Protein backbone atom coordinates (compact mmCIF):
# COMPACT_ATOMS: atom_id res chain seq x y z
CA UNK A 1 0.00 0.00 0.00
CA UNK A 2 1.35 3.41 -0.98
CA UNK A 3 1.78 5.89 1.84
CA UNK A 4 0.40 8.84 -0.14
CA UNK A 5 -3.05 10.07 0.94
CA UNK A 6 -5.66 10.21 -1.79
CA UNK A 7 -7.93 12.37 0.36
CA UNK A 8 -7.22 14.32 3.53
CA UNK A 9 -9.35 16.34 5.95
CA UNK A 10 -7.71 19.00 8.08
CA UNK A 11 -9.62 20.39 11.08
CA UNK A 12 -12.85 19.95 9.14
CA UNK A 13 -16.00 21.48 10.68
CA UNK A 14 -19.59 21.64 9.52
CA UNK A 15 -22.30 23.45 11.45
CA UNK A 16 -25.94 23.76 10.49
CA UNK A 17 -28.35 26.38 11.81
CA UNK A 18 -30.53 24.82 14.55
CA UNK A 19 -33.89 25.98 15.85
CA UNK A 20 -34.39 29.56 17.11
CA UNK A 21 -33.50 30.10 20.79
CA UNK A 22 -36.34 32.61 21.14
CA UNK A 23 -36.97 36.23 20.24
CA UNK A 24 -33.72 38.23 20.04
CA UNK A 25 -31.55 35.26 21.12
CA UNK A 26 -30.54 34.06 17.67
CA UNK A 27 -30.36 30.48 16.44
CA UNK A 28 -28.64 27.51 17.99
CA UNK A 29 -25.89 25.75 16.02
CA UNK A 30 -25.72 22.07 15.22
CA UNK A 31 -22.09 20.92 14.99
CA UNK A 32 -22.33 17.88 12.72
CA UNK A 33 -18.58 17.60 12.16
CA UNK A 34 -16.27 19.17 14.71
CA UNK A 35 -12.59 19.50 13.83
CA UNK A 36 -11.90 16.21 12.06
CA UNK A 37 -8.40 15.53 10.73
CA UNK A 38 -7.81 12.25 8.90
CA UNK A 39 -6.42 10.77 5.70
CA UNK A 40 -7.36 7.92 3.41
CA UNK A 41 -4.26 6.46 1.76
CA UNK A 42 -4.11 5.33 -1.85
CA UNK A 43 -5.43 1.78 -2.15
CA UNK A 44 -6.64 1.81 1.47
CA UNK A 45 -10.05 1.26 3.02
CA UNK A 46 -10.62 3.44 6.06
CA UNK A 47 -13.64 2.28 8.06
CA UNK A 48 -15.69 5.02 9.72
CA UNK A 49 -17.99 3.85 12.51
CA UNK A 50 -20.25 5.35 15.14
CA UNK A 51 -23.91 5.52 16.14
CA UNK A 52 -26.36 7.12 13.74
CA UNK A 53 -26.32 10.92 13.78
CA UNK A 54 -22.64 11.16 14.80
CA UNK A 55 -21.63 12.95 11.59
CA UNK A 56 -20.24 10.06 9.50
CA UNK A 57 -22.27 10.75 6.37
CA UNK A 58 -21.73 14.50 6.63
CA UNK A 59 -17.98 13.91 6.84
CA UNK A 60 -18.15 11.71 3.72
CA UNK A 61 -20.02 14.42 1.84
CA UNK A 62 -17.58 17.10 2.93
CA UNK A 63 -14.66 15.03 1.61
CA UNK A 64 -16.41 14.73 -1.75
CA UNK A 65 -17.26 18.46 -1.69
CA UNK A 66 -20.94 17.59 -2.02
CA UNK A 67 -21.32 19.92 0.96
CA UNK A 68 -19.20 22.94 1.80
CA UNK A 69 -17.33 22.87 5.12
CA UNK A 70 -17.85 25.67 7.61
CA UNK A 71 -14.09 25.67 8.23
CA UNK A 72 -11.07 23.44 7.72
CA UNK A 73 -9.61 22.03 4.53
CA UNK A 74 -10.01 19.12 2.12
CA UNK A 75 -7.14 17.88 -0.06
CA UNK A 76 -7.50 15.48 -2.98
CA UNK A 77 -4.22 13.96 -4.11
CA UNK A 78 -2.36 16.78 -2.36
CA UNK A 79 -4.42 19.54 -4.00
CA UNK A 80 -6.48 21.86 -1.83
CA UNK A 81 -10.05 21.56 -3.15
CA UNK A 82 -11.78 23.27 -0.19
CA UNK A 83 -12.81 26.42 -1.97
CA UNK A 84 -12.96 25.30 -5.60
CA UNK A 85 -16.09 26.44 -7.45
CA UNK A 86 -18.42 23.80 -8.92
CA UNK A 87 -16.90 24.34 -12.38
CA UNK A 88 -13.34 24.08 -11.04
CA UNK A 89 -14.37 20.88 -9.22
CA UNK A 90 -15.61 19.23 -12.42
CA UNK A 91 -12.29 17.49 -13.27
CA UNK A 92 -12.31 15.96 -9.75
CA UNK A 93 -15.90 14.71 -9.91
CA UNK A 94 -15.05 11.59 -11.87
CA UNK A 95 -12.19 10.82 -9.44
CA UNK A 96 -14.50 10.84 -6.39
CA UNK A 97 -17.76 8.93 -6.26
CA UNK A 98 -20.32 7.81 -3.69
CA UNK A 99 -22.28 4.60 -3.15
CA UNK A 100 -25.46 5.09 -1.13
CA UNK A 101 -27.14 2.93 1.50
CA UNK A 102 -30.36 2.92 -0.48
CA UNK A 103 -29.46 2.90 -4.18
CA UNK A 104 -33.18 2.80 -5.04
CA UNK A 105 -33.69 6.38 -3.91
CA UNK A 106 -30.76 7.54 -6.04
CA UNK A 107 -31.80 5.62 -9.19
CA UNK A 108 -34.27 7.21 -11.59
CA UNK A 109 -37.26 4.81 -11.64
CA UNK A 110 -37.93 5.68 -15.30
CA UNK A 111 -34.43 4.82 -16.49
CA UNK A 112 -33.24 1.35 -17.43
CA UNK A 113 -29.86 0.25 -16.12
CA UNK A 114 -28.42 0.92 -19.56
CA UNK A 115 -29.80 4.47 -19.65
CA UNK A 116 -28.56 5.23 -16.10
CA UNK A 117 -25.03 4.08 -16.94
CA UNK A 118 -25.09 5.89 -20.28
CA UNK A 119 -26.08 9.11 -18.51
CA UNK A 120 -23.20 8.76 -16.00
CA UNK A 121 -20.71 8.19 -18.85
CA UNK A 122 -21.96 11.12 -20.92
CA UNK A 123 -22.11 13.62 -18.04
CA UNK A 124 -18.41 12.99 -17.44
CA UNK A 125 -17.47 12.77 -21.16
CA UNK A 126 -16.18 9.24 -20.70
CA UNK A 127 -17.06 7.76 -24.12
CA UNK A 128 -16.68 8.69 -27.76
CA UNK A 129 -18.65 6.52 -30.18
CA UNK A 130 -21.92 4.65 -29.61
CA UNK A 131 -20.17 1.29 -29.90
CA UNK A 132 -17.57 2.32 -27.30
CA UNK A 133 -20.40 3.27 -24.97
CA UNK A 134 -22.16 -0.04 -25.59
CA UNK A 135 -19.00 -2.01 -24.84
CA UNK A 136 -18.24 -0.05 -21.71
CA UNK A 137 -21.75 -0.49 -20.32
CA UNK A 138 -21.72 -4.22 -21.08
CA UNK A 139 -18.35 -4.57 -19.32
CA UNK A 140 -19.57 -2.65 -16.26
CA UNK A 141 -22.73 -4.73 -15.95
CA UNK A 142 -20.72 -7.93 -16.18
CA UNK A 143 -18.06 -6.68 -13.75
CA UNK A 144 -20.59 -6.08 -10.96
CA UNK A 145 -22.15 -9.52 -11.43
CA UNK A 146 -25.30 -8.64 -13.40
CA UNK A 147 -26.41 -10.35 -16.60
CA UNK A 148 -26.60 -8.70 -20.07
CA UNK A 149 -30.43 -8.82 -20.07
CA UNK A 150 -30.46 -6.75 -16.87
CA UNK A 151 -29.42 -3.71 -18.92
CA UNK A 152 -32.96 -3.37 -20.26
CA UNK A 153 -34.66 -3.53 -16.86
CA UNK A 154 -35.85 -0.81 -14.49
CA UNK A 155 -34.80 -0.37 -10.83
CA UNK A 156 -38.06 -1.78 -9.41
CA UNK A 157 -37.38 -5.10 -11.17
CA UNK A 158 -34.30 -5.78 -9.01
CA UNK A 159 -33.66 -7.06 -5.49
CA UNK A 160 -31.86 -4.86 -2.92
CA UNK A 161 -28.53 -6.58 -3.56
CA UNK A 162 -28.89 -6.23 -7.34
CA UNK A 163 -29.77 -2.55 -6.95
CA UNK A 164 -26.62 -2.04 -4.92
CA UNK A 165 -24.69 -3.66 -7.78
CA UNK A 166 -26.24 -1.09 -10.14
CA UNK A 167 -25.18 1.69 -7.73
CA UNK A 168 -21.63 0.31 -7.75
CA UNK A 169 -21.63 0.07 -11.57
CA UNK A 170 -22.78 3.68 -11.81
CA UNK A 171 -20.01 4.83 -9.46
CA UNK A 172 -17.43 2.78 -11.40
CA UNK A 173 -18.62 4.07 -14.79
CA UNK A 174 -16.48 7.19 -14.47
CA UNK A 175 -13.30 5.36 -13.35
CA UNK A 176 -13.04 6.89 -9.87
CA UNK A 177 -10.01 6.61 -7.61
CA UNK A 178 -11.78 7.33 -4.31
CA UNK A 179 -15.24 6.13 -3.27
CA UNK A 180 -17.27 7.00 -0.20
CA UNK A 181 -19.33 3.87 0.52
CA UNK A 182 -22.04 5.25 2.80
CA UNK A 183 -23.53 2.29 4.70
CA UNK A 184 -23.53 0.27 1.44
CA UNK A 185 -24.73 -2.97 3.02
CA UNK A 186 -26.80 -1.78 6.01
CA UNK A 187 -30.14 -2.29 4.25
CA UNK A 188 -29.28 -5.77 2.94
CA UNK A 189 -29.75 -9.29 4.31
CA UNK A 190 -26.63 -10.70 5.97
CA UNK A 191 -26.00 -13.26 3.19
CA UNK A 192 -26.19 -10.52 0.54
CA UNK A 193 -24.02 -8.18 2.63
CA UNK A 194 -21.07 -10.57 2.28
CA UNK A 195 -21.46 -10.69 -1.51
CA UNK A 196 -21.43 -6.90 -1.83
CA UNK A 197 -18.49 -6.53 0.57
CA UNK A 198 -16.56 -9.15 -1.44
CA UNK A 199 -17.38 -7.36 -4.69
CA UNK A 200 -16.08 -4.06 -3.28
CA UNK A 201 -12.89 -5.79 -2.06
CA UNK A 202 -12.30 -7.44 -5.45
CA UNK A 203 -12.81 -4.13 -7.24
CA UNK A 204 -10.37 -2.44 -4.90
CA UNK A 205 -7.70 -5.00 -5.64
CA UNK A 206 -8.31 -4.93 -9.36
CA UNK A 207 -8.62 -1.16 -9.82
CA UNK A 208 -6.52 0.19 -6.94
CA UNK A 209 -9.51 2.02 -5.44
CA UNK A 210 -9.50 3.79 -2.08
CA UNK A 211 -12.62 3.68 0.10
CA UNK A 212 -14.05 5.52 3.05
CA UNK A 213 -16.35 2.73 4.25
CA UNK A 214 -19.06 4.08 6.53
CA UNK A 215 -20.96 1.62 8.70
CA UNK A 216 -22.42 1.19 12.15
CA UNK A 217 -21.80 -2.56 12.11
CA UNK A 218 -18.29 -3.03 13.46
CA UNK A 219 -18.00 -6.54 12.08
CA UNK A 220 -18.62 -5.35 8.50
CA UNK A 221 -15.89 -2.74 8.85
CA UNK A 222 -13.45 -5.17 10.48
CA UNK A 223 -13.17 -7.34 7.39
CA UNK A 224 -12.80 -4.61 4.79
CA UNK A 225 -10.73 -1.91 6.51
CA UNK A 226 -7.00 -1.57 7.03
CA UNK A 227 -7.67 1.21 9.56
CA UNK A 228 -10.79 2.27 11.47
CA UNK A 229 -11.85 5.70 12.74
CA UNK A 230 -14.52 5.86 15.46
CA UNK A 231 -16.70 8.98 15.61
CA UNK A 232 -18.74 10.35 18.48
CA UNK A 233 -20.79 13.55 18.27
CA UNK A 234 -18.91 14.94 15.28
CA UNK A 235 -15.40 14.08 16.46
CA UNK A 236 -12.99 11.24 15.80
CA UNK A 237 -12.34 9.69 19.23
CA UNK A 238 -10.14 6.78 18.15
CA UNK A 239 -8.20 5.90 15.02
CA UNK A 240 -6.01 2.84 14.66
CA UNK A 241 -5.35 -0.18 12.48
CA UNK A 242 -8.20 -2.63 12.26
CA UNK A 243 -6.22 -5.18 14.30
CA UNK A 244 -5.54 -2.67 17.08
CA UNK A 245 -9.12 -1.44 17.27
CA UNK A 246 -10.62 -4.91 17.54
CA UNK A 247 -8.05 -6.54 19.79
CA UNK A 248 -7.18 -3.61 22.08
CA UNK A 249 -9.60 -0.68 21.85
CA UNK A 250 -8.31 2.22 23.95
CA UNK A 251 -11.29 4.58 24.01
CA UNK A 252 -14.20 3.63 26.32
CA UNK A 253 -16.68 4.44 23.52
CA UNK A 254 -14.96 2.02 21.11
CA UNK A 255 -14.99 -0.62 23.85
CA UNK A 256 -18.69 -0.05 24.38
CA UNK A 257 -19.42 -0.30 20.65
CA UNK A 258 -17.51 -3.57 20.50
CA UNK A 259 -19.39 -4.86 23.53
CA UNK A 260 -22.69 -3.99 21.86
CA UNK A 261 -21.83 -5.68 18.55
CA UNK A 262 -22.84 -9.34 18.27
CA UNK A 263 -19.73 -11.45 18.83
CA UNK A 264 -19.47 -14.59 16.68
CA UNK A 265 -17.07 -16.16 19.18
CA UNK A 266 -18.46 -15.41 22.69
CA UNK A 267 -15.19 -16.42 24.36
CA UNK A 268 -13.19 -13.88 22.33
CA UNK A 269 -14.07 -10.82 24.43
CA UNK A 270 -14.82 -11.25 28.08
CA UNK A 271 -15.11 -7.67 29.23
CA UNK A 272 -18.47 -6.05 28.59
CA UNK A 273 -18.88 -2.31 28.78
CA UNK A 274 -22.45 -1.28 28.25
CA UNK A 275 -23.44 2.10 26.91
CA UNK A 276 -25.77 4.02 29.20
CA UNK A 277 -28.32 6.57 28.02
CA UNK A 278 -28.74 8.01 24.55
CA UNK A 279 -26.42 10.01 22.33
CA UNK A 280 -26.69 13.64 23.54
CA UNK A 281 -28.12 16.23 21.15
CA UNK A 282 -25.46 17.83 18.94
CA UNK A 283 -27.45 21.07 19.45
CA UNK A 284 -26.42 21.04 23.09
CA UNK A 285 -23.33 18.84 23.47
CA UNK A 286 -22.05 18.10 26.99
CA UNK A 287 -19.15 20.15 28.35
CA UNK A 288 -15.62 18.70 28.40
CA UNK A 289 -15.49 15.25 26.84
CA UNK A 290 -18.81 14.85 24.99
CA UNK A 291 -18.87 11.19 26.03
CA UNK A 292 -18.61 11.88 29.77
CA UNK A 293 -22.33 11.49 30.68
CA UNK A 294 -22.22 7.92 29.29
CA UNK A 295 -18.66 6.99 30.17
CA UNK A 296 -18.31 4.39 32.98
CA UNK A 297 -14.83 5.63 33.94
CA UNK A 298 -15.34 9.42 33.65
CA UNK A 299 -13.44 11.48 36.24
CA UNK A 300 -15.39 14.33 37.78
CA UNK A 301 -13.64 17.67 37.52
CA UNK A 302 -11.58 16.52 34.55
CA UNK A 303 -13.75 14.77 31.97
CA UNK A 304 -16.71 17.15 32.43
CA UNK A 305 -14.47 20.23 32.07
CA UNK A 306 -11.66 19.62 29.60
CA UNK A 307 -12.07 18.56 26.00
CA UNK A 308 -9.59 15.74 25.26
CA UNK A 309 -7.56 16.24 22.09
CA UNK A 310 -6.55 13.39 19.79
CA UNK A 311 -3.09 12.12 20.84
CA UNK A 312 -0.97 9.20 19.75
CA UNK A 313 -0.31 6.50 22.35
CA UNK A 314 2.86 4.41 22.43
CA UNK A 315 0.87 1.58 20.87
CA UNK A 316 0.12 3.76 17.84
CA UNK A 317 -3.58 4.27 18.63
CA UNK A 318 -4.76 7.85 18.17
CA UNK A 319 -7.22 8.46 21.01
CA UNK A 320 -9.17 11.43 22.38
CA UNK A 321 -9.48 10.44 26.04
CA UNK A 322 -7.81 11.89 29.14
CA UNK A 323 -7.40 8.47 30.75
CA UNK A 324 -6.38 6.28 27.78
CA UNK A 325 -2.95 4.72 28.18
FE1 LIG B 1 -14.41 8.79 29.47
FE2 LIG B 1 -13.06 10.90 30.40
FE3 LIG B 1 -12.02 9.43 28.46
FE4 LIG B 1 -14.11 10.97 27.97
S1 LIG B 1 -12.07 11.65 28.57
S2 LIG B 1 -13.84 8.90 27.33
S3 LIG B 1 -15.25 10.80 29.86
S4 LIG B 1 -12.46 8.76 30.57
Short description:
The chain is of the alpha/beta class and 325 residues long.
Biggest sheet details: 8 strands, mixed
Distance between the termini: 29 Å
Mean pLDDT across every amino acid position: 91
Helix percent band: 25-40%
Shape: globular
Q: What are the SSEs and their pairings?
A:
Blueprint: E1 5-20, E2 27-41, E3 45-49, H1 56-63, E4 71-76, E5 79-80, H2 86-93, E6 96-99, H3 103-106, H4 113-123, H5 130-143, H6 160-172, E7 178-182, H7 190-207, E8 210-215, H8 218-224, E9 227-232, E10 235-241, H9 242-247, H10 252-260, E11 311-312, E12 318-319
Parallel strand pairs: 3-8, 3-9, 6-7, 7-8
Antiparallel strand pairs: 1-2, 1-4, 4-5, 9-10, 10-12, 11-12
The chain binds iron/sulfur cluster.
Iron/sulfur cluster (SF4) binds at residues 252, 289, 291-292, 295, 297-299, 303, 308, 321-323.
Structure description:
- With 325 residues, the chain is α/β, with parallel strands linked by helices.
- It has helices spanning 56-63, 86-93, 103-106, 113-123, 130-143, 160-172, 190-207, 218-224, 242-247, 252-260; strands at residues 5-20, 27-41, 45-49, 71-76, 79-80, 96-99, 178-182, 210-215, 227-232, 235-241, 311-312, 318-319.
- The strands form two sheets. The chain has an eight-stranded mixed sheet with strand order 6-7-8-3-9-10-12-11, with helices on both faces. Strands 2-1-4-5 form a four-stranded antiparallel sheet.
- 30% of the residues lie in helices and 23% in strands.
- It binds iron/sulfur cluster (SF4).
- Iron/sulfur cluster binds at residues 252, 289, 291-292, 295, 297-299, 303, 308, 321-323.
Amino acid sequence: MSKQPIIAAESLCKTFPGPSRGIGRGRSQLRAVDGVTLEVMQGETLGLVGESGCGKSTLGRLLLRLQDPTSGRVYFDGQDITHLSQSALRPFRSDMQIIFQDPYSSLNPRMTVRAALSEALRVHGMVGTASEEEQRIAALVERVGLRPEHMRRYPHEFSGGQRQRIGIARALAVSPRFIVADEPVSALDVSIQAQIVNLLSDLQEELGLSYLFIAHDLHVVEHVSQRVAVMYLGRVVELATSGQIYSQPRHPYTEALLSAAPEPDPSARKRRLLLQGDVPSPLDPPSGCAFHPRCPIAEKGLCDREVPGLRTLESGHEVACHLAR
